[in-house]
Amino acid sequence: MKKSYSVISAIFLTGYLWQYYYNVQWPWLVMMQKNDIYKQISGLIILLFILSQWYLSILRIRNKMAKAFVELNIHRTLGVLAPLFLYFHTTRMGNYYLFFLSVTFLAIFTMGFLHPSVFGIQKQWLIKTWIICHVGTSTLLMLLLGQHIFISYWYE
After folding, report:
1. Quick one: DSSP state of residue 118?
2. 112/38 Cα distance (integer angstroms)
3. Domain limits of the chain?
4. CA dist list (Å): 153 to 43, 113, 118
5. What is the pLDDT of residue 1?
6. What's the mean per-residue pLDDT of the chain?
7. What is the structure's pLDDT at 3?
């Protein structure tokens, strides 16, 4: 099952990067993405998606491993959809800090589908290093999102 998540994730990531690199656009989507209400709703959906992904960490911190085990499948299933959430919010990766925000978002996603267990690697030091990188980068993403939300509303 983990490998199928990784294959689908790689396809979605490739698709997002392909459309960005070759500037492939759907006129109706570009028009919607210029609408302030659409931007706010799609941004809220991404924020809720990201916050829901943190639920797994909260369960682990609270040592609720049985619930965390169940949540892991939901975490992975929703995680596969990350590029779609980003795509419907914006087809562009932005400039400067927005580019960094987009790259950070996609890096977390990429780390997710490159978990060592997908490749049959069970070395605990590597899995722990992977978790530190995945969660650490996710924490950075939350800071960048906070800045993005603040700036978006400050200048509106």
Report:
1. G
2. 28
3. 2-154
4. 12, 33, 40
5. 54
6. 94
7. 86
